[in-house]
Design brief:
By secondary structure, this protein is mainly beta. The chain has four helices and 21 strands. The structure holds 2-acetamido-2-deoxy-beta-D-glucopyranose (5 copies).
Length: about 425
């Protein structure tokens, strides 16, 4: 009796031991996999880091975890671009960008100046620009070393978009969906808006969610695009904070272009704004609303597209037109709204990555994310409400969009967003 009890105890111990062994070995496999996702490519990771991170004059440790390097203006990544070898840096536009702007700043206290967390820990000296340092763990978490900082895009799908009597082809990158206000069919040489700032849920590390402005030109599967706004993107930034971002491509994201300064292209001139930097605070449901105000405008004398923070009229930097083919002159489509990317887009179950505030557009003020005073600039050199323009919401059960005015004679806000997966978006 005693003996068999003893035996049973031993068997139990044995089972527990085996289970523990199994857990240990399986977690060893996981650990091994994570620490070496590109077998034998440790050297390549080091080389990529040396390529991405420029020598700096000063470096700042931000309380949000970022390290910011202040890099000599004349040694910035853009100047590695083969077409910018002899580029002479423009310090300010050849015209006053406030000319022809009749939009009114947000007057209610739902606006705060553009604020970024890193500025609490220091600032960059004159003659330098702040660049977010890429760390080893950022690269190890990327889907591939080669595509770090780029969009994971190879296929572009065409969605036809009907506006009045015309049909426009809008290219949507594969695995993306959008809810946006679109205008098309004229020549646009600038665009701006105030973008309400939120921190939506991003379900998986390889997904992202944005609120942004797009300027596009070119055939849907090989187009040029300039994009800017805020983003939650764990695979690039290693966390789920809301960050300022810019993006460009000259081939629909197939091989060129990237976020922020992660590949040569965009020339930054401002020392106070960090591309990829955390924006704070974000808006609260039924509470204070915050926004960022951004603008892109073509400078024909300098042959560049300037990016401007319009609240404080700060020139952040520019895209030289030389890096584009179709956007070399003008944009023909401008969009304002949200974009969600997931490698599992349009599959069941749908991603639960949210857009905007994560509420649907119909929830309106202080519950849904909005675009305030979308404006385009045309050859008249004045800013105008984009007319005609319409909501483009290809997956309306997951993410919606609505142009809505509180009262009859006020200009509508464009509300957009949604939770992703829900009863009607399974
Ligand atoms: C840069 O300048 C050099 C010398 O003037 C010239 O040979 C070269 O073609 C230029 N490169 C570009 C990309 O313009
Ligand atoms: C303005 O701020 C005050 C105090 O913070 C707040 O009570 C009020 O609701 C705010 N108004 C708007 C429109 O957000
Ligand atoms: C774009 O699409 C057209 C028609 O679908 C096709 O003929 C063309 O080869 C595509 N171009 C690129 C660069 O993929
Ligand atoms: C990145 O990888 C680390 C482990 O290497 C993991 O803890 C983390 O959750 C991953 N994701 C992000 C977004 O950093
Ligand atoms: C597109 O971008 C790539 C990479 O920056 C560049 O090599 C190429 O020349 C650009 N194409 C055009 C037409 O500007």
């Amino acid at each position: 009796m005693l003996l068999s009890n003893f035996m049973i105890t031993r068997v139990k111990e044995m089972v527990i031991f085996l289970v523990l062994l199994y857990i240990a070995s399986s977690s060893a496999v996981v650990v091994g996999k994570q620490s070496n996702p590109f077998p034998g490519e440790e050297l390549q990771v080091e080389a990529k880091l040396r390529l991405l991170n420029k020598p700096f004059v000063k470096s700042i440790q931000s309380e949000d975890g970022d390290i910011i390097d202040c890099v000599d203006l004349y040694k910035q990544p853009a100047l590695d671009h083969p077409l910018l070898k002899n580029h002479s840096i423009r310090i300010s536009p050849s015209f006053d960008p406030t000319n022809g702007d009749s939009s009114t700043p947000l007057i209610l206290n739902y606006s705060l100046p553009f604020s970024q967390v890193w500025r609490r820990s220091g600032s960059c000296p004159d003659g330098t620009i702040p660049i977010r340092r890429v760390l080893k763990h950022h690269l190890l978490n990327a889907s591939s070393l080669e595509r770090y900082g780029k969009k994971n895009t190879n296929v572009i799908t065409k969605r036809d978009f009907r506006m009045l009597e015309h049909t426009f082809a809008v290219g949507i990158e594969n695995y993306h969906t959008a809810a946006a206000l679109i205008t098309a069919g004229y020549s646009y040489i600038g665009a701006k808006a105030d973008i309400n700032v939120w921190n939506p849920r991003v379900e998986a590390d390889d997904e992202y969610s944005t609120a942004q402005i797009w300027l596009r030109n070119g055939p849907f599967n090989n187009s040029d695009s300039i994009e800017f706004g805020w983003i939650v993107n764990p695979s690039v930034y290693g966390d789920r904070q809301t960050r300022l971002f810019i993006y460009w491509t000259n081939d629909s994201g197939k091989s060129t272009g990237c976020f922020d300064l992660l590949c040569p292209g965009f020339v930054q001139v401002n020392k106070d704004i960090l591309l990829g930097g955390t924006i704070y605070p974000t808006s609260a449901f039924h509470g204070q609303q915050y926004h960022i105000s951004l603008e892109v405008v073509r400078d024909f004398d300098q042959n560049v597209w300037w990016l401007i923070s319009s609240t404080d009229n700060i020139m952040i930097g520019y895209w030289p037109c030389d890096i584009f083919s179709y956007l070399y002159n003008i944009a023909v489509i401008v969009e304002w709204g949200g974009d969600v990317y997931s490698p599992r887009m349009h599959q069941e179950p749908h991603t639960a990555t949210a857009m905007g505030s994560s509420n649907f557009a119909s929830d309106h003020w202080s519950f849904a994310c909005f675009i305030h005073q979308p404006r385009i600039k045309d050859y008249s050199m004045t800013y105008k409400y984009p007319y005609p323009s319409f909501p483009f919401t290809p997956d309306v059960n997951c993410y919606s969009g609505e142009n809505y005015a509180e009262t009859l004679f006020t200009e509508p806000l464009f509300y957009f967003g949604g939770p992703g997966r829900n009863l009607y978006c399974p």
